Amino acid sequence: MTSAEHARLMRANQANWDARTPVHLTSRFYGLDEDLDPERWFAAFEWADLGELSGRDVLHLQCHLGTETLALARRGARAVGLDFSAASVAAARDLAAKSGLDVTYVQANVYDALAALGDRRFDVVYTGKGALCYLPDLDRWAEVVSGLLRPGGRLYVVEFHPLLNALGPSPGPDEGPELLLRHDYLAGSGPVHRDATYTYTDGPAVEGATDCYEWAHGIGEVVNALTDAGMSVRRLRESEELPWPRWPRMVRTDSGWWKLPEPRIPLLYGLLAVR
């Protein structure tokens, strides 16, 4: 697939995320009409790996509504969020203003982040859950991240495990509760086209642009992209917990997150790399 085709599919995703935003803003999933607790989207191991953030320049790539960006700012970071959706960035700015936190938001495709942010460089780049599947080219992404970091700067990726994405969100209409492999774990088969009329949150149907394209990325692909870009991987964690119950038989843990009673499989991973 050519870069022009990648760009066309990413524009379709951008339109879809613009259309998703009003649904997400009023969803119970995000709970933005309640007392906002952005730290509920973070596992304890994320804060341990990120370390001290006070006074640090932190960039949150593909930030959507900026909920995690707010949590980074609450920890004392000079936080910047970047997303390609104009609707998401507008909503994120409104949420930051309501929270009283000083956060900068920039609308740009992640591949254009260097140009969009000018000469600004960061101590930490954070990429949160459900972001990498919307990027067709991880080698190019890793080069951008490396360029955004100061020497010695850190990238922290917390992503849904590719095994989770391969299992699919729910059983088919004629299937039992067993977990079945439905999608690729590894890259190479091109994008998966999805109908995003309904998103991962509760709420009404998305109006307008409902075409969505996702790319599979195995952990090996992520690691190799970063090392090829001159970065050093310092830590890789695999976790059996998710911040919400993706399957009905998941049980709540002491952390407030959710896991499968069995089998014990990785659902989330955290990767720390240093430039």
Automatic annotation (TrEMBL):
GO molecular function: methyltransferase activity
Keyword flag Nucleus: no
Domain of life: Bacteria
UniProt KW keywords: Methyltransferase, Transferase
Matches recorded under InterPro entries: Methyltransf_12, SAM-dependent_MTases_sf
GO biological-process terms attached to the record: methylation
Signal sequence extent: none
Annotated TM spans: none
Stretches assigned to the Methyltransferase type domain: 59-155
Name of the protein in question: Methyltransferase
Native source species: Streptomyces fumanus
